[in-house]
Write a structure and sequence with these properties.
single chain; Deoxyribonuclease I, Chain A; two-stranded antiparallel ribbon
Length: 305
């Protein structure tokens, strides 16, 4: 780890560390009214650490201005219902006003554990909070980590996700209908179904035949990370966005256009309760449709009764 900036104190003290190789474009610190404020400007983002000792009234000093997105994180020792206290105090009101004037959003999840567990009061509190610039608030997530030994505090972390994040799914083979051999699927199914009477009792046998024909004529595969419904034009936009994200994680050049493209797509791959896809039903032949029609008629008759 590399020390970016620190403020020494006989009782308190703050330090900002970063992984080796991190280059800080600028650093600054302030200790007005004994409130410790350390600021580091990195490529693409400005990070500020704040520590206010409990007995000192909150008078938030001015943070160096920057056009880059801001992350302000620290132990504010201030009470507000916005971050889990039962009521506000004067310090909490001051922090809320400062955040509003600075156009910063609080990132707080009430389902997370309390970041401070008081041994004296035997209760949990949230003095450790984090604010971010509004334009990255929707991409930000706060986590309260495991407790540190010999302290009543838990570390908190903030994660800034990419605007478009591939979904991660367990490995499970899925049908590729775009490469399906539909003539072969229909021919195999018609041949196997020819001697099966159209009786509701045979419906389970019928579905097994569909699954056998499916495995033979429709290839299966799996992407453990993917973006649902991403077509060729949207893929090009996504690749451009990835390049921008690597150079500047907070670039917005393609985000809106890419999200719009993805939201307008329809996958058409809904699966039924019997594990038969609607895409397969489209390619059923006349013989295969009979058991389906009988089963549907029987279901309707049951509802009428």
């Amino acid at each position: 780890m590399t020390t970016l900036i620190e403020r020494s104190h006989e009782k308190y003290g703050s330090i900002m560390l970063a992984k080796n190789g991190t280059i800080a474009e600028s650093t600054s610190k302030s200790d007005e009214n004994n409130i410790e404020v350390l600021t580091t400007e990195l490529r693409g983002v400005t990070i500020t650490s704040v520590y206010k000792p409990p007995p000192i009234p909150m008078e938030m000093p001015e943070i160096p201005s920057s056009r880059k997105p801001k992350i302000v994180i620290g132990d504010f020792n201030s009470h507000s219902t916005q971050w889990g206290y039962t009521n506000n105090n004067a310090d909490g009101d001051a922090v809320e006003t400062w955040a509003e004037n600075s156009q910063l959003n609080l990132i707080h999840d009430a389902k997370q554990p309390k970041s401070f567990n008081s041994g004296r009061w035997r209760a949990g509190y949230n003095p450790d909070i984090v604010f971010v610039s509004r334009k990255i608030a929707g991409l930000s997530k706060k986590l309260v980590l495991e407790p540190l030994p010999r302290t009543q505090h838990r570390p908190i972390s903030i994660t800034i996700n990419a605007a478009i994040t591939p979904a991660t799914v367990p490995f499970r083979r899925r049908f590729n209908f775009g490469k399906a051999n539909w003539p072969g699927f229909q021919e195999d199914l018609e041949r196997k179904i020819a001697h099966l009477p159209a009786d509701p009792k045979n419906y389970d046998k019928c579905t097994k035949l569909v699954h056998k024909a499916t495995r033979k004529n429709i290839p299966r595969g799996c992407h453990t990370q993917y973006i649902p419904g991403l077509d060729a034009p949207s893929t090009e936009l996504y690749e451009r966005y990835q390049q921008l994200y690597e150079s500047d994680p907070f670039a917005e050049s393609t985000t809106v256009e890419l999200n719009t493209s993805i939201n307008t797509l329809k996958t058409g791959k809904a699966i039924g309760l019997d594990n038969i896809f609607t895409e397969e039903i489209k390619h059923f032949g006349p013989l295969m449709r009979k058991p389906v029609e009988v089963r549907t008629a029987e279901t309707l008759a049951t509802f009428k009764r």
